[in-house]
Write a structure and sequence with these properties.
The complex is a heterodimer of chains A (348) and B (330).
Chain A lengths: L48 H12 L11 H4 L45 E2 L5 E2 H5 L2 H4 L8 H9 L2 H11 L5 H12 L8 H6 L8 H11 L18 E2 L15 H4 L8 E2 L21 H9 L19 H14 L16
Antiparallel strand pairs in A: 1-2, 3-4
Helix pairs in contact in A: 1-7, 9-12, 11-12
Chain B lengths: L23 E7 L2 E6 L6 E5 L4 E6 L2 E7 L4 E3 L5 E3 L4 E5 L2 E5 L10 E5 L8 E2 L4 E3 L14 E6 L3 E6 L7 E8 L2 E2 L3 E5 H5 L4 E6 L5 E5 L10 E5 L6 E6 L5 E6 L5 E5 L9 E7 L5 E8 L3 E6 L5 E5 L12 E6 L4
Parallel strand pairs in B: 5-11
Antiparallel strand pairs in B: 1-28, 2-3, 3-4, 4-5, 6-7, 8-9, 9-10, 10-12, 13-14, 14-15, 15-16, 15-17, 18-19, 19-20, 20-21, 22-23, 23-24, 24-25, 26-27, 27-28
The chains are: A mainly alpha (348), B mainly beta (330).
C-alpha cells in the first residue's frame, strides 16, 4: 500500500507557457484582474502587430458586407461598449435579428474551464468554437453582412492595401482563413480589466466608494450573483436558464439547440459583467434597459419555468442593497483603461 | 514541498486491463445507485440505491435491504435524476455513514448507523445518530446536497453542493464514538475557482483528495485537488481533462482512479487512471467506458466495485442502475 513514496516532486510552474512577450513583435497588455494564460492563443495563430492591425481594419470595414454599409463594428461598436446600444442587431437592408449583440470585450478570454483542455464557446448558445470559428459567420449571415466567402475574398483582393498586408502577414493574397485569423487576433486585444474592483483586490482600500463596497458584498453573498458571474471575467463559461424569454409563446431554446438536453432549454451563456455600465440594453433579447431593471429581475428570482437554474430564487434585497449593487456594477467594473479603440484608416 | 501521491510510472500501462475486463454485473435493477462502501472484516459490499431511498448489501448475488425510507429529491433539469442517500463510508465494522441528498438544503445530515448482521431486519432511515445539519448563517446559505463521504480516524468529510458560490467540503471531528458539529471546512470554489466538489477520498498518506466536478455545462473542467486534512490548506490543484468527476479511489497498488460521468456526452464517460504526467500534472488514461458511473470502491480482495445509473428509454421508469465488479489487478 505504501509504495506510494515513489512519487516525485511537483513542478508547479512552467506547465503552461505564458503568452506574454513570447508573441513575436506583439506587445501584450493583459489588464490586472484577468489571468494572462486565459487569453489563449492558438498555436497556428500567433499574435503579431501586423496581423492585429490587419484584423482591426477588417473589423471596422463595411466593405465586408454586401451593400458596404455594415461592419463588425456596426454591431460591436467601441462607443457602445463593443455592443450596439440597441435591443436587437440590425444588419444589411435594415434587417433585424432575434438576439441582442453581446459585447466582444474579453470574448477571447476563457471563462471557466481549464486552459489546457476546455474549448471556448462563442455566441449566446455556444454554437461556435473559439474566435476563429466565429469570425466568418456574420459575414455570411444573410441578415447581418450577407456576403459569400468567394465574394468577400475577391472584393478584398481588389483592394491593394489589403492584398499587400495579407502578403506581409500570411504570405498569400486575401484568403478567408487569413481573414478569420486576423479578426480573431484583433479581438484578443479587446480586453477590459484593471477596474476599481481589481485595484481593491490588489490592496487599494480606497479604490471603491462605501456604497460600491457594500454592493460588492451583496453581489458575492446575499444575491449570490457569483454563483454564475465568477472568475476574472465575471462569467463561469457555463450556460444557465435565468428565465429570460421563457414567458414567450415560443421561447428561444438557447443552448438546447446544440446539446438537445432538456435541462439546457432556455439556457444562455453567462455574459461578462465587465464594462456592464456601457452595454445596455441587457440580456439575450435585450429586454432590460437598465441595471436597476436587471437587479429587480433577479430580486424576483427570474422567470419561473421547469429549467430555471437552482441558483435563481427570491432574493428579498432591500432598496439600499439594490442601489448598492447597481453602484458596484457601474463603478466597480468600469475600467479607466477601457479599450476605447478609434476606427482605423481603411486601406484603399 | 508537496509530493504528488500518484505513482510515477505508467509502465504497466493498459496491459493490466485487458479486453477481458468487461466487468461483471453483480446487481442490476438499481435506481440511480450513487454510493458504495466495503465493510471492513467481512468484505461485504454496501450500495446506496439512491432513488429507492435505501441502502442495500450484496448477499449471495442479490440485494438485501439494510436501511430504508429516505425521501427523494430531484437533481438536474433534464435529464432529471431522483436522488436520496448518496455517499457511504464505514468507520468501523458495523458503523456506516450515509450522506443525505433527498431533503431540502439545511435539513440534510450525515447519518451514522450501526448496521445489523446480514439476515436481520432493515433499519429505518431515522435509526441513526445524525451529524449536522448545515444551517444558514447571516452570510452563507443553508448547505446540503451531499455527495460523497470520506473518513480518517480523526474526522468525517463530506462534499456539499447546495451553495454554488462556495462549494463547501464540510467536516465533523470524531472523538471515540461521538461526532463534533458538522461545519463548513473548505470553500473549494474559492480555492480553485471551479464549481462543485463531488468525489472525495483519502490518499494513502492521509491528504484529502477531491475531484472538482466543475460546471456540468462546461466540458473538460474537472480538477484533481489535494488538501491538508487537518487545516484544509490547498496542496495541489491540476486539470484532468475529465468532464464531471464523480468518484476517486486508490487501488491496492497505489494507482489513483477516477470516474467521469460526462453529463453533456455520457458516451465519453468511464473509468480513468490518473497518472502523473511527469511535469507535475495529471494524465487521465481511459480504462473502460461506463454509462453514467457514480461511485466506486475497491473490495478487500482488490476487485473494483462501481455503481452506474445506466440508461432507460424515454418515459420508462428508473431502474437501469447496476453494480459492476472489475477483477483485481488495477
Amino acid at each position: 500500500m505504501r509504495s506510494i513514496g515513489r512519487s516525485f516532486l511537483l513542478v508547479v510552474l512552467a506547465l503552461f507557457p505564458r503568452v506574454a512577450s513570447a508573441q513575436g513583435d506583439f506587445e501584450w497588455h493583459v489588464p490586472a484582474g484577468l489571468e494572462e494564460q486565459r487569453v489563449r492563443i492558438p498555436k497556428d495563430n500567433p499574435m503579431t502587430q501586423g496581423k492585429v492591425d490587419l484584423g482591426k481594419q477588417l473589423f471596422f470595414d463595411p466593405r465586408l458586407s454586401r451593400d458596404n454599409t455594415i461592419s463588425c463594428a456596426s454591431c460591436h461598436d467601441p462607443r457602445h461598449g463593443w455592443s450596439n446600444g440597441q435591443r436587437f442587431a440590425t444588419g444589411v437592408r435594415g434587417q433585424v435579428g432575434g438576439r441582442s449583440a453581446p459585447t466582444i470585450i474579453n470574448a477571447g478570454y476563457l471563462n471557466g474551464g481549464i486552459v489546457k483542455f476546455t474549448k471556448q464557446l462563442q455566441f449566446w448558445d455556444g454554437r461556435a468554437v473559439e474566435l476563429e470559428g466565429q469570425a466568418l459567420g456574420p459575414i455570411q449571415n444573410p441578415i447581418e453582412m450577407d456576403m459569400t466567402l468567394p465574394e468577400v475574398v475577391s472584393r478584398l483582393n481588389g483592394i491593394e492595401g489589403y492584398r499587400s498586408q495579407f502578403q506581409q502577414v500570411f504570405g498569400t493574397d486575401v484568403t478567408s482563413e487569413g481573414m478569420e485569423k486576423a479578426i480573431a487576433a484583433f479581438e484578443r486585444t479587446v480586453l477590459s480589466g484593471d477596474a476599481p474592483f481589481d485595484r481593491l483586490k490588489a490592496g487599494d482600500e480606497s479604490a471603491l466608494s462605501e456604497a460600491a463596497r457594500r454592493g460588492m458584498s451583496v453581489f458575492f453573498n446575499k444575491a449570490h450573483c457569483s454563483a454564475c458571474h465568477t472568475g476574472g471575467n465575471f462569467a463561469d463559461g457555463g450556460f444557465h436558464n435565468v428565465g429570460i424569454g421563457m414567458d414567450q409563446d415560443e421561447p428561444d431554446p438557447g443552448r438546447y439547440s446544440q446539446t438537445k438536453l432538456q435541462g439546457d432549454f432556455g439556457s444562455f451563456k453567462t455574459p461578462t459583467l465587465r464594462e456592464i455600465a456601457r452595454t445596455a440594453p441587457y440580456m439575450h433579447d435585450g429586454r432590460l434597459g437598465t441595471l436597476e431593471e436587471v437587479i429587480d429581475f433577479y430580486d424576483k428570482g427570474g422567470i419561473p419555468n421547469p429549467q430555471l437554474d437552482e441558483e435563481m430564487r427570491l432574493l428579498k434585497l432591500t432598496g439600499q442593497e439594490k442601489a448598492d449593487l447597481v453602484i458596484f456594477l457601474q463603478e466597480g467594473l468600469s475600467s479607466a483603461s477601457y479599450p476605447d479603440t478609434m476606427p482605423p484608416t481603411l486601406p484603399e | 514541498m508537496f509530493r504528488l501521491p500518484l505513482t510515477a510510472t505508467v509502465i504497466f500501462a493498459l496491459s493490466i486491463v485487458s479486453a477481458t475486463q468487461a466487468g461483471e454485473i453483480v446487481l442490476d435493477g438499481l435506481k440511480n445507485p450513487s454510493g458504495i462502501a466495503v465493510q471492513p472484516e467481512t468484505g461485504v459490499v454496501f450500495v446506496s440505491d439512491s432513488a429507492a431511498g435505501r441502502i442495500v448489501r450484496l448477499v449471495e448475488g442479490s440485494a438485501e435491504e439494510v436501511i430504508t425510507g429516505s425521501s427523494g429529491d430531484t437533481y438536474g433539469k433534464g435529464p432529471k435524476y431522483t436522488i436520496g442517500p448518496m455517499g457511504l463510508a464505514f468507520l468501523a465494522e458495523n458503523r456506516l455513514v450515509v450522506a443525505d441528498s433527498g431533503f431540502p438544503d439545511g435539513e440534510e445530515y450525515l447519518r451514522v448507523f450501526e448496521v445489523p448482521p446480514a439476515g436481520a431486519a432493515a433499519l429505518g432511515y431515522d435509526d441513526c445518530t445524525k451529524v449536522g445539519p448545515l444551517a444558514a448563517t447571516d452570510s452563507v446559505k443553508a448547505e446540503g446536497n451531499f455527495y460523497a463521504v470520506a473518513a480518517t480516524e480523526a474526522a468525517l468529510y463530506v462534499t456539499c453542493n447546495g451553495d454554488d458560490t462556495k462549494g463547501w467540503i464540510s467536516k465533523s471531528d470524531i472523538t471515540g464514538a461521538s461526532f463534533g458539529e458538522l461545519a463548513r471546512f473548505i470553500a473549494s470554489k474559492e480555492a480553485t475557482e471551479v464549481d462543485a466538489p463531488v468525489a472525495i477520498t483519502i490518499s494513502p498518506r492521509g491528504e484529502l483528495v477531491v475531484g472538482q466536478m466543475g460546471e456540468i455545462t462546461v466540458p473538460s473542467d474537472g480538477l484533481l485537488t489535494f488538501y491538508n486534512a487537518r487545516d484544509g490548506k490547498l496542496l495541489y490543484n491540476q486539470p484532468t481533462g475529465l468532464h464531471d468527476i464523480t468518484a476517486l479511489a486508490y487501488s491496492p497498488r497505489g494507482h489513483l482512479y477516477a470516474l467521469d460521468f460526462a453529463w453533456n456526452d455520457p458516451s465519453q464517460g468511464g473509468l480513468f487512471r490518473l497518472d502523473n504526467d511527469g511535469e507535475g500534472g495529471v494524465n487521465a488514461v481511459k480504462i473502460k467506458s461506463l454509462d453514467k458511473p457514480t461511485a466506486m470502491a475497491f473490495g478487500s480482495e482488490g476487485a473494483l466495485y462501481i455503481t452506474l445509473i445506466g440508461s432507460v428509454e424515454e418515459g420508462q421508469e428508473v431502474g437501469a442502475g447496476q453494480l459492476l465488479r472489475l477483477k483485481p489487478g488495477l
